[in-house]
Amino acid sequence: MTAPPGRRERKKAATRQKIADTALRLFLDRGYDPVGIRDVAAEADVAVTTVFSHFASKEALVFAQDEDFEHRLTRAVTDRTGEALIPALHREIRAMVRHCAARERAPIQRMIGSSPALRTYEDSMLLRYADSLATAIAADPDRTPTTCRAIARFVIDAYAIARDAADPETALDELFRMIGAAWDALD
Amino acid sequence: MTAPPGRRERKKAATRQKIADTALRLFLDRGYDPVGIRDVAAEADVAVTTVFSHFASKEALVFAQDEDFEHRLTRAVTDRTGEALIPALHREIRAMVRHCAARERAPIQRMIGSSPALRTYEDSMLLRYADSLATAIAADPDRTPTTCRAIARFVIDAYAIARDAADPETALDELFRMIGAAWDALD
DNA sequence: GACCATAGCACTAACGGTTAGCTTTTCAGC
DNA sequence: GCTGAAAAGCTAACCGTTAGTGCTATGGTC
User: Fold this and answer.
1) Are A96 and A19 in a shared domain?
2) Which whole number is the average pLDDT over A61-84?
3) Are residues B53 and B87 in the same domain?
4) pTM
C-alpha cells in the first residue's frame, strides 16, 4: 500500500504514535479527566498544537487504534462474493465484539465506561459508522434508502448492545435473528 | 400535579423560561456558534452561572422544550391498556415526527442540522431516551434485557431516520414493519 | 550539490464553555 | 420580624481548542 514511506511520513507517523501511546498511558495511569492535553503534550515532548494536528480532539486520542473499524464494516459489505448481506455483517460484527472483549482491552473499556465524554464520543463515532455502512448497503439498488439506513443502524445497535451484554456472542445471535427478520420483512 | 407552585418556584421557572427564550431568539437571529453564553446571559439579564444552574450545557438551551419526549415515550409503553407494544410505539413516534415536521419548527431544525455540536447532542439525547424506553419495555418479564434494548434502539432509529426522510410518514410505516417483524421473530 | 516550495512543528496568546468559591438577595416557615 | 435555605450574583480561573506566526527540516528540481 505504502511503497516508499519516505522519511518525512515515517517521522510523522512516529510522532503520532508517540502521542497516542503517551496519552493512553497517562489516561490509564491517572484517569482520563485529570490528565490534560497540556500534560500529554509535555510528556510526549511535543507542542499542544502538534497534538491537535494529529488528533481532532482529546477523546480521539483514546480511539486512535479503532479507526479501521469503519473500513472493515464497509468492506464486509462491498467485498462479499455471493454471500448474503446479513450473515456477512453478522460475521464482521462478531469479530469486532470479540476484539473489544479481549483481555488486554479491559482497562480501556473500563475507562471509556466511566467517562461520559468518552461514551458520548464513541456513540457519535458509531453513528458515523452507521452512515458509512448505509451508503455501502445502498449500492444494492433493490433497497430504499430508508431501508438501508435502518439496517445499518440496527447492525450498529447490535454491536453496542452485545458488547455490554453478559454473554456477548449469544446476545449477538439473538440480535441478528431480529435483524434478519426485519430484513426479510421487506417483500 | 403541582398544587401550590409558590412564588419562589414560579420565579425560578420564569427565569428559566426567560433564559431559554432569549437564547433561542439570539441563536435563530445570529446563529448558534456566534452567540456565546455570555451574550445569552447579558441579554437575559442574568449571570453566566445562573444560566448553567438551569441548563447543563449550551446545547441544552436549544432542546429545552423537548424534555417531555422521554416521558411521553415511556408512558406510551406503561400506560397502554391491552394495546400491543409495537403499535403503541408506532403511534407515539408518529406524533413526535409530525410535531418536529411542523412549519414553525423549520428554522430550529435547520439550525440543529447545520451545527455539528447540536447534532451530536441530539443524538446522545436520543440514546438516553432509548435507555429509558428499554427500561420501560423491560417491565414485561417475558422479554430478555437484550431484546428490550434492541427494540428501544430500533424505535429511536426509526424516529431519527423517518424525520430526515423525504416522506416521513411513509418511511415510518416501512420502518415499523421491520420492527414488528424483528419483534415477532422472538418465539 | 544547491535551491526552493512546503509540510510539520513550535510558541504565544487568546477564545469560549464550564466550574469553584464566596457573597448577596429573596423567599418560606416559625 | 427572624432564621435557614434556596436562588442568583460576581470574580476568577480551568481546560479544550484555535488563530497567527515563524522556524526548520525534508523532498523534488535544476
Assistant:
1) no
2) 90
3) no
4) 0.91
